Amino acid sequence: MVIVLDQNQENGGPLTGLHQFDEQVAPALGELAKILGRLGSLKALGRQAELLHPGDIEKQLQEAVALCDQARERALAARDLFGRFRLAPDEEGQAQWERAFLKQCRELKLAVEGEFPTYRIFPIEIKADLGHAQVLVNKRVVRTLHPKAVAAKAAREIDRLNKERFNPNQFMRALLRAYRLLGAEMQVDGRKKEAAKKQPLKRIHDILALRTGPGGYSLSQFAFDIYRLRRDSDLVIEGQRLVFDSTRETKDGVEATLPGLRTGALGALEVVPVGSDYDDGQS
Description:
Elements: H1 7-11, E1 15-16, H2 17-40, H3 45-51, H4 54-83, E2 85-86, H5 91-107, E3 113-115, E4 118-121, E5 124-129, E6 134-137, E7 140-142, H6 147-163, H7 168-188, H8 192-195, E8 199-200, H9 201-210, H10 219-232, E9 236-237, E10 240-246, E11 254-258, E12 262-273
Parallel strand pairs: 1-2
Antiparallel strand pairs: 3-4, 4-5, 5-6, 6-7, 8-12, 9-10, 10-12, 11-12
Helix pairs in contact: 2-4, 5-6, 7-9
């Protein structure tokens, strides 16, 4: 493979943006990796010591010396290239990263919302903090910056979540307990009339999250569980129907993908007796 040097590379100037990484830095790393792979194949030299075949040992030693010389040369060149590389020092660099990320998401059939630097692929939240050379997935730093790798990471995480066991009845019982606890708190505070009304989903999430500790049960995971519940269940438990109310105030609600792949915000949970005047049979 022949690596073509552009003017910046020849002059030792800066290399910026994803395009220059893919066209110049990545090929240099790839060539080095090939040499190191060939060098690694010479580990059989250790077995030659047991056989003590002079011709084979001499041949492999000569090859090892040549490969080490090549590896050093390529490693120094790659280090120089990478040392001059900056992924997104300006808006154009950020735009390059975003275009590549969105393109890869389309190829993986991931529905993306948002714009640089914050994206949402329900229920995954992604923040590209390129200035600090890091990407956060659900507020956790991942060891990748390349947009293709970030999209692949999101796809794997969503696939993992979908494959996790989910017990709708168990989740409904947890929601019901939290709902009743909030109602009981209102009664203690002398707000009996309010106790029978809808309870904010964010407060219900706070109660459920206490069981797992800080960061153990994210709001996005809670929204994903609600999505799976609405998709897979009739929302009836112990003779009660769980009713999730939408809200226009996304800051106060839980952003969710609803059955039918519509996006919206759910604000509150109401529990009504099945068959009562309040039960319209919908969720």
